[in-house]
Amino acid sequence: MDSAADSPLLTSKHVPDNAHFTGDVHDIPPIRGFKDFLVQFGVESKKLWYLSGPLIFTSVCQYSLGAITQTFAGHVGTLDLAAFSIENSVIAGFSLGIMVGMGSALETLCGQAYGAGQLDMLGIYMQRSWIILFVTALLMMFLYIFATPMLLLIGQTEAISHAAGKMALWMIPQLFAYAANYPIAKFLQAQSKIMVMSCISGAALVLHTFFSWLFMLKLGWGLWGGAVVLNFSWWFMVVAQMAYILSGTCGQAWSGFSWAAFSNLWSFVKLSFASAIMLCLETWYFMALILFAGYLENAEISVDALSICTNILGWAVMMAIGFNAAVSVRVSNELGAAHPRSAKFSVLVVVVFSIIVGILLAILLVIFRHQYPAMFADNLEVQQAVYALTPLLALCLIINNIQPALSGVAIGAGWQAAIAYINIACYYIFGVPLGLILGFVVNWGVEGIWVGMLTGTVVQTVILIWICVRTNWEKEASMAGERIRTWSGQKGGE
């Protein structure tokens, strides 16, 4: 790779004429003192929160769809709560990890192409991603169909396996909504068209909450009513976002359906697969936490308590996911526009805010530690188990608010394949075995499983911080330019 100074990608002819792509035509100047730092921190903070504010709201709303269904299930019965928790965390969680992971390749390509001013490629990338994700959904459908025997095979109780398997069959439409939604989301995020996503997600959440209460509790439909409403809510968001795109509001980024989407598909599959491995390893990690709890004595109580904690953690992590998406857009746009210093500085700003938000959330949890368990379950034994897990949950809120933001940096820069190897080592070679030893051998139960797996997350977070500090961002900008030329069909010397 040529040095950054010699790279043609860092010359002015490659900076997009449209200054609105990244907010600046030029890279930020070198920071030479504390005053310069404060000025640039303020500027970058405004850009980050302009993106992350609506994205956090969107992420919280979309996550809350399943979380609210789970909350109502907790008031239907302990078996219903355990069944939905297993379906939502294991079956849907497994599928969601794959869908979001496959879609993150689109996040890298769309963000960098947008930063470079190649708007016409965004629609093509989205259509390629649709093709790949819908084929993936067809394959994943067998997991839903055979959920009961699979859960029995891995040792879940017969009652939970049959109830969760029935729920999985009802949730197949949600699987295809995932396939449609995530490419649309990445397409809109890359262009910073996030307010419309927030409005649609907010409307879906309001409707979902009312109809979930009506069907699950008032009419007494139980999990069947929850499945109907949850499927409808996800497809409502897909149809509304697609209507926005087809209305012509995206300009050059959407020029209609094109046969060009079928070109270079295999290369797109490989990049999507690397992205999927990276994010799936993170998503499945917490899925495994619920799964292992099902092997403990008094499995229903253990699964219920841990699912409530991961439900709360999931809501908090949605804020981090907002930072994840925002910094991914910032880093990919700036690297695409050949602004390495701006990309590097955006990483620093997002880490600072992630730490602050995580600490504030942990403080709130501790303050209301006596009240919140009753919101999620009527069973007093479950409430006591949740209360006992509160210190661990508070610590998780801090750590798991930083890690997703750093993963967003990796997506924006296109490091998915390298991060996948780190995730395998930290999570599955180190974290999972340690959790199983503490939980089952040392007999610490749920707390031991969680402590071990949380340790794996801490190690992974430290490594990601070290990578960001050591990165040559000028070289990353050069590589982003080469990636844009490759995926737009241009030759290297053109």
Automatic annotation (TrEMBL):
Chief site of localization: membrane
One Pfam family it belongs to: MatE
Keywords of the record: Membrane, Transmembrane, Transmembrane helix
GO molecular function: antiporter activity; xenobiotic transmembrane transporter activity
GO BP of this protein: xenobiotic detoxification by transmembrane export across the plasma membrane
GO cellular component, one term: membrane
UniProt-listed InterPro entries: MATE_euk, MATE_fam
Transmembrane stretches, start-end: 48-69, 89-109, 130-155, 167-184, 196-215, 221-247, 268-292, 312-333, 345-368, 388-406, 418-442, 448-469
Domain of life where this protein originates: Eukaryota
Family: Belongs to the multi antimicrobial extrusion (MATE) (TC 2.A.66.1) family.
Protein name, per record: Protein DETOXIFICATION
